[in-house]
Amino acid sequence: MARIEPPFPLRPALPVTAFAFVGFWIGLTITLNYHLDALCKMAPGEGVLSVAQRIIGPLSLCERLFSCRPFIAAALLTGIAFLVIVARPTRVRNVIALLIVGCVCGISWGALGAQTLKMNCHRVVTIPDESVIIEAVEDAIATRYGVVQTARITAGSGKGLRIQLYYGKGVRSLELGQRATLSSTIIPLANKESSRMNYTKEVVGRTSVSSLSRYHYSGPFSWVYRYREKLGALSKQINEHEGITRSVLLGDRRGISDQLKDEFARTGLSHLLAVSGAHFAVMAAGVLKSLSALSLSRRASQIITIVVCLLYVILTGCPASAVRSLGMLVLLSLNIVLRRRGSVLNSLCLTGLVCLVAKPFWAISLGFSLSVLAVGGIALFARYTTWMIQALIPRLSFRVTTNVALTFVALIMTTPLTSVQFGFISLVAPLSNVLVAPLMMTTLTIALCGAAIAWTSELSASILFACCAQINRVSELLIGLLAQISW
User: Fold this and answer.
1) Burial code of 452-461, b = ≥16 C-beta within 10 A, e = fewer?
2) 199, 241, 310, 448: which one has the fewest Cβ atoms less than 10 Å from its Cβ?
3) Is 380 within 8 Å of 348 (Cβ atoms)?
């Protein structure tokens, strides 16, 4: 009997927003890298005020131009006029026009973002030696310099600025969203290349913390952060193998050892520790399934699902990959409510544009870049890869073929960035993803169930977290074996 080959997939349509997004991203990346290079490559003893004046001076004519609102308006009008002129000719010219307009807008917006960063550097110098209230915006991490954490000043001089906290011995670090009173002197960052990573997170100052007082939660989402602390405490009751559970559930990697992090990196599994679209797919499916039993309308179910996912983004600290996933989920829900056919690429590019406008420095963020490249690659090439695998190995089930294709495409798209970041290419990554990813997804599903019922029954949540720990034991064993493979 002749074998029937699977039909060749249709070519995905590239939306207009894709070219605008790519152009905006390119312009933003070029501009921010230019300004960060100028800001970081300074003489060690040079002050922030004098350096900022030198940069704003004759060294950077582009900044003067791109920081002017008339120039931005003129650039936008020029782009619109160019679009009108080439509206009728070939599509290639239209694509070029969109890329140019997006790039010009990205350059202008990046210059404004860099100017804001330099203004914040000015503000740090003028902060007097007085107490301020700070709020943790990230989890504390242990480094060779001690425990380090990023915080934001919420009250007092320098309100709104982000600073780096270096904790002394015996000082209790803040939990995510927790506030405290700081009495230490805040100084500018050292003007050197090592400060570049902090600048990309909009951190402009640093201080050594010898003591903090009045630990408390405040704000409209304080109850969310308290619940996060509660979930962390419940998972910590499981003494062994609980670090992976906290990482996949809360985005908190403090429970993962350096050796295990290195093994995750060498096996190409670091993305499994980040909050991504898989979290929202599992969560949205669970919420919609639960709401279907209540006979709610489609619109009400979608709204409740979005609210739950929004609270989860806040619970995890609003990482770039989670915000991107939430934006795409909102657009998908809107398409369902309006009964319109959605496009993954269109949703990705529109969400990416909104994210970069709100957070310009995400353009040079590794997390945002990996998230966008992986999802974009899957939307473009997953169908072709699935077809090729089915044609080569027809006995494989469609589910297995799809999982292998998704993993392969995501790895191919993200390898250029990860190889630069980690200094190597993991050849065992396809195999490790096929073996370990199902276990990690099982851990995520059970952990989300535990987080959902922890409101009413801490004992039941602890039991589910204990089940996650046993699955993590198997995952760590597999990762350790795969990491020993020399190639």
Assistant:
1) bebeeebeeb
2) 310
3) no
